[in-house]
Amino acid sequence: MYLKNVDNIQNMSSFKEGLWTVQDESAMLVGKVIAPKAGERILDLCSAPGGKSIHMAELMQDKGEIISCDIHPHKLELIVKNAERMGVSIIKPTLQDGTICNEDFIQSFDRVLVDAPCSGLGIMKRKPDIRYNKEATDLEDIAAIQRAILTQAVKYLKPEGILVYSTCTISKAENEEMVAFITGELGLELNKIVDTIPKVLQDEVEKESMIQILPQIAGTDGFFIAGLKKRGI
Q1: Catalytic residue among 46, 69, 118, 168
Q2: pLDDT score at 219
Q3: Which sequence spans correspond to the domains of the chain?
């Protein structure tokens, strides 16, 4: 559904009633790619404001458990508010720094989503000031944070568990090179995602396992998604 000529969606009765929420089409693909199943335990490690957690909960028919993490307490409040509005009960907002290991999480999740903090270069059409506020050193610092988060995220997967890594950027250092880090340094293997991608975009999928969506391809935000799998023991 597309909305036009709306001043404030939060004033619409259908929005207040939780009949729908807002996501860019490229971001909506993440839930489809991670493909959560009812009854599974899912970790959304960088969750706020919770849109992807809510989408996964709906795909799971609100059965199972989703641990939705953020480093800021006030952002957890956004997750709670959005989940309540949408009538979702399986989301558990959790204060967690993604770069720090949580011993209670180790090998306890069927699927882990790392929608990583990034440079945001894929959403400049909505936030044009990004082009004036980013330096090369900023990208290096962000990539270091991404590596630290992924290093912990891999520990939380059960054997044969699925990790989906996504960003709203078009930077190879944050995308393809980060996938190389996951497969090379962290030992995960690529996992086929091409069947979860709309046919109009399937030609953009690399090695059947990752896709860089550019704004001019489908009129969406620039977005990157990769699927990976932990080897069994």
Answers
A1: 168
A2: 79
A3: 22-229
